[in-house]
Structure formats: structure tokens, C-alpha cells
Amino acid sequence: MIHPVAVIGAGPYGLSTAAHLRARGIPVRVFGDPMVSWRAHMPAGMILKSVPSASNIDAPQRGHDLVDYCDAAGIDRLVTDEDLVTADTFVAYGDWFRKKLVPDLEQVRVVSVDRRGRAGFELKLDSGEQFTARAVVVATGLSGLEHVPGELAAAVPDGPTPTGPLSHSAQHHDLSRFAGKELLVVGAGQSALETAALAAEAGATVRVVARGKGRVRFGEPPWRQPRLRPDTPFGRAWSLYFLTYYPHQYRQLPPQARHFLTKRVLGPLGAWWLRERFEGQVTVRDVAAVQRLTVSGDRPCVSVRTHGGRRADLVADHVIAATGYRVDLAALPFLGDGLRTRIATSRGTPRLGAGYVSSVPGLYFTGMLGGSSYGPVMRFVCGTEFASPRLAGHLAAAHG
Hints:
Layout: E1 5-8, H1 12-23, E2 28-31, H2 36-40, H3 66-73, H4 87-101, E3 110-116, E4 120-125, E5 130-133, E6 135-138, H5 150-153, E7 166-168, E8 182-186, H6 190-201, E9 205-211, E10 231-232, E11 235-236, H7 238-245, H8 247-250, H9 255-264, H10 275-278, E12 283-287, E13 289-296, E14 299-305, E15 311-315, E16 318-321, H11 337-340, E17 345-346, E18 349-350, E19 363-365, H12 371-374, H13 384-399
Parallel strand pairs: 1-2, 1-6, 6-19, 7-16, 8-9, 8-16, 9-12
Antiparallel strand pairs: 3-4, 4-5, 10-11, 13-14, 14-15, 17-18
Helix pairs in contact: 1-4, 1-13
């Protein structure tokens, strides 16, 4: 009996990987809620930071790019770096891609994955079904990886919630609930700045708390990018060119260097088009450090250390931690304990070899889960162009 390959996750990386495997004639079962992170865990009205050319889900054949979806849907093409891609458009594009290339997606949850001798892997679904897969691709994206710093999280032992004093930015789709409220947003990246701008437009009084002097920054518009540097989906710079087009070489760097670059490169920076919607609408408080969160009654208070060394208390109706995501295999509950202990890791992230395979033969990780091995480009949709064909090729050679 030929067992199928299981792909866990139905976002851009899961769909792209499944399409490439199917094109090679490999039986595949794909599990997940399609585009769920984009559909349910991004704020309404969000616009992608990436330009249209960097927003394609890679396919094994032509005709499945964002512009092809625009043509099929009868909407204006999104082609220049000045065109903006809304989250709604991107979700619709992902659904179109899925219907064309991964029509048999199973919208059920994988409960557990364990090694099953030489036969492969045993999977259990929340439908009650159990089956054996010869290989497993984990492409769960951002799900479960929300990071809240300890100085904030300590105040909410049961975890952040949208209705409590503290939440994570991924827990909000409709920011209109904060109309007439005072809101603190902790963070300085695109997620923090766009969340703050959208909440202000919805009627909230918003302050952004950013650690470090002048940490709220915005990128330059396309027409102001340096002309003598190579073009990349993220702007013109030699460092970005290397990270975008040479992930294999990135994997050869020492672990300390890779972790540093994954954290720092493509770091906190607002999109160029967000500046005019942000400035004058949102107050920014630059601080040396965020020290702790306390709650008095139902009002949260964030204590900070100013650049002058003093303490200041910032009180609001709610605090949103727009503090990003952190890869940690412990956040993937479906990985069985026996399997998890066999996966070689570095600072909680899987150490991947050629073709995105882990130290467990037949177990692959892609997308953000592969970022510490293949670089920051894995956090973006355009990374599917590098990852998916290579993962599929490696899997086909090893398990075809």
C-alpha cells in the first residue's frame, strides 16, 4: 500500500507545497482551515506590507499568480510597487488558488502525529480517523506562535484574551470594539503601527509604546529607493538581496549569526503608505524598557522606564501586545512527545537540512517554522517560490 503525504496547514506555504507535490504525482492529504491566519487573525482593513510581485503563492505551473487571480476575478491588476494588496484580496486569491490546485483540502484538525516505525507516521484527526502517512509536512504558519513578553504576560496567568486587560494583536479582527476607548499598543513593527492606525480610524484613542529612541520608523516609497542597489521584494539593498535569493547559503551560517539575522533583518518598520494614516492620529511614547503590566479593577497599567531613567505608568482601557511571533516546537501540540524529542532544535526551532527536512527522516517544516534555517524571507509569501519546489523535490527523491 502506498501511503499519502500529509500536509498540515492550509495557508500559503501549505497550499503551495501541496500543489507542488500533486504536480509530481505524489498522493497528498492536506488538512487545515484555508487561509485562517489571514482571514480571522488579521485586522479588518489590513493591507499587506509586501508589494504585489512579492505576494504570489508559488505554483508548479504558470497561471496562478496574483495577477492571474485579478484577471479571473475581473478586478484591476495589481502589478506595480505602488499598488496595495488588501488582506481581503489576498484571502480571496488564496481561496482561488486552493480551488484550482488543492480542491480536496480536508477542513479537519490534526490532533496528533507520531512516528510509526519504518512505515512512516501515524496521524489522528479530530474526526476520529487514524491513518498512516509516509511523510509529513508541517506548514502551520503563525498559528500558536504568538509571542507576549514575560513582563506583560505575567499579569494574565490564564493568557491574553480580547476581552481581558491584555491581548495579542492576532486576537483581533474587528477593532471597532475599541471605539471611544483608550488603547495602548506595545510594539514598533508593521503589525503594531497598522493596528494602531486602524483602531484610531475606528474611533479609539491610541498610544503606541515603542522600546528604543526613534523606533517608530517607516520605509521609503518606491520612487525614493536607492537606484544603485539590487531590487528585492522588500526594497533595494545588498543584504536583502542575499537573504531573498540565497537561503541555501544562509543555512551554512553559524547558528548565532542565523538567529541574529532572523531576529534583526526585516525588523520593525512601517510600510511607506502607512505614515500619513499614522502620524497625527496616534501618539507615540518612546521608552527605554517596558517593565511590567498590572491591573487595577479592569484598567491595565503598563509601567515603563523612560530614557531619563525614571518610571512612568501608562493607564488605558486595554493593552494590545503587537510583539510578533516566536517559533517554538512546544507550541505545536499535535507533535507527539516521542516524536518531538527526536527533532534536533536550536533555541526551540527545528534544525533543517536540505529540502527543509528535519532530523527525523520524512518530517518537514516550511514557512515561518523554517526561518531560523533558511532566513527571514520564510516569514513572507514570496518565500514559497524558494521553499515549495525544493521541499517537494527532496521529498519525491527520498519518499517517492
